[in-house]
Amino acid sequence: MTALAQTFSGPNRLILAAALSGLAAVTALASLHGGHTLGLATLIGGLAGVSLYHASFGFTAAWRRIVTEKRGGGLRAQFLLILLTALVSFPLIGWGAGIGLPTGGFVFPFGIAAAIGAFMFGLGMQLGGGCASGTLFTAGGGSTRMMVTLAAFVTGSVAATPHMHLWGQLPKLPAFSLIGNFGPIGAFAITAVVLGAIALWSVRVETRAHGSLAEPRATESVLTGPWSLVFGAVMIAIVGIATFLVLGRPWGITSGFALWGAKIWQGLGVPVTDWPYWQWQKGALEASVFADATSVMNFGILLGAMVAAALAGKYAPAWKLSRRDLLTALIGGLLMGYGARLAYGCNIGAYLGGIVSGSLHGWLWLVFGFIGSLAGTRIRLKLGMG
Prior knowledge:
The chain is mainly α. It has helices spanning 3-7, 11-34, 36-55, 59-68, 73-95, 112-128, 132-140, 144-160, 164-167, 178-210, 229-247, 254-267, 276-280, 282-286, 293-311, 323-342, 347-355, 360-382; strands spanning 110-111, 172-173. A two-stranded antiparallel sheet has the order 1-2. It is globular and about 60 Å long. The two termini are 31 Å apart.
């Protein structure tokens, strides 16, 4: 039986209907609370969920495979995603205001707190089994382990917020924009040269270890998947570019998790509004979660991945988890949540969002996040996680 035939029979048909209905409901609620802009943002999130799921496009496994298997295809796909997005985002940031498309980037100072946070995130994503986008699309696709990781991720995110004003006092480098200093064309050339050099290094590592590059996975079906990594990178780049055009800023994920956690804790009686972080963001706490662009995009990713899993005939949660899987999911999620707050975000908001904004902090996040990922990979191997 084909995946499409499986989709329209049995439980997958119900899952597909539920996911599409949920996506429509969130789109309507987002439009009600934030206008058509947030409605569009929800649908962009839905496209992200479908694309991430069908391409199995994760940052965590790609970083791990270049170390443990000497395979760099996933890493090179990430670089393709960055360059395709930057090809549009750099001109928008540099010249968008002049053509009626004012666009801002994520350009932040990077210091001790951000370095610690990026390391924590890299470590946590290997233990948790996925990065921020990976956690969302695999949880939406039916992974019960990643649902645990997501819950811990949300908890870690809000747990960091009472300490943010203290972490912020640590030394940091000033914010530096490649676009501001070299212009959109010069910034893109620098980005392409650096990513190209790392990609060539990965090719050399892979061919030395295996004699040739791995045969790339082909796209079998646009509707039911799986997709090739290249097609996935193109589609996710469209997500990033659409986010710039609709929201006027890069794609982000983890600020939504902190908001969800703060609303939950506030409902339980925790005085989160007394913390400086939430005094600064008091409006977000008072407003509906459907008025938050990052949140509705996250809901879209979860539901889009559920749509993709149903279309592929693969939505089948396994409810039994080993003690090791449960503990590593909890620890990994907590580390990612806390670390993301310190480091201006995750692999999407800080690494991808930073580099496609032309910010130095995105490159530094990559360095310290990768070091944390190396540590996490070694722990995985010692725990027999493969």
